[in-house]
Amino acid sequence: MITGKPFLTVEQIQRRVKELAAQISEDYEGKELLAVGILKGAFMFLSDMAKLIQVPMNVDFLVASSYIKTHTTGEVVIHADIREDVKNKHVILFEDIVDTGLTLQYLKEVVLSKKPASVKICTFLNKKAHRQVHMDLDYVGFDIPDEFVVGYGLDYDNRFRNLPYIAIFKEDSVDNIKG
Ligand code: IMP
Ligand code: MG
Prior knowledge:
By secondary structure, the chain is of the alpha/beta class. It is 22% helix and 32% strand. It has 3 helices and 8 strands; from the N terminus they run H-E-H-E-E-E-H-E-E-E-E. The protein has helices at residues 10-27, 43-52, 102-112; strands at 33-39, 57-68, 71-80, 90-98, 118-127, 139-144, 149-150, 167-168. Strands 3-2-1-4-5-6 form a 6-stranded mixed sheet, sandwiched between helices. The chain has a two-stranded antiparallel sheet with strand order 7-8. Strand 2 (57-68) and strand 3 (71-80) form a beta hairpin. It starts with 9 loop residues before the first helix and ends in an 11-residue tail after the last strand. The mean pLDDT is 91. Magnesium ion is lined by residues 38, 41, 96.
C-alpha cells in the first residue's frame, strides 16, 4: 500500500520522460549511445527512458553515494565504476537529482578521464537552491524548489525509492508514506 500526496504525479513524470527521450533520440540520430545510470537513484528514470530512446544504445551503471539521510557529506564515493569501455563513446550520465552539483562534477571528471567522444548529463530533477558548482545540465526533467523529495528512485535513508511518483519528504511524514 502506497500513500502520500504526489508533488509530481505518475502522469506528469511519464509525459516529461517521453519528451526527454524524444529530444535525446533526435539529438543522437545516427550515433550510438552509452547510457550510464548513476545508482541507486537513477534506476527508475533510466529504465523508463531506455524504453523510449530510439537510437542504438548500450546501458551501464555506476554506483556512487554522497548523502546520509537528507544531508550531503560533500564527499563522493564510487562503490562500483562503469564496466563498459568508454573510450570514443557518446556517453549520457543519467542522474536522479542535481543538488549542490558536487556529485556530478566529480563523476563527469571521472568519465572524461576515460576519453569518451562526448559526455552529456540527463537529470530527472534539478534543485538549484544549494548549487555550489556550475554544472551544464543538457537534459532536465523538472526544476524543483528547495525541498527534500522522495520516490521514483529517490530515497530518504534508502526508503521510498519504489514510489512511482515524487513526494515531498518531511521528517514527520515518515509514517505516512509507505514505500
Ligand atoms: P549533489 O552532489 O548535492 O548534487 O547531490 C546529488 C545526490 O544527492 C543525488 O544523486 C541524490 O542521491 C541526493 N539528493 C539530493 N537531493 C535529494 C532529495 O531531495 N531527495 C533525495 N536525494 C537527494
Ligand atoms: Mg543519486
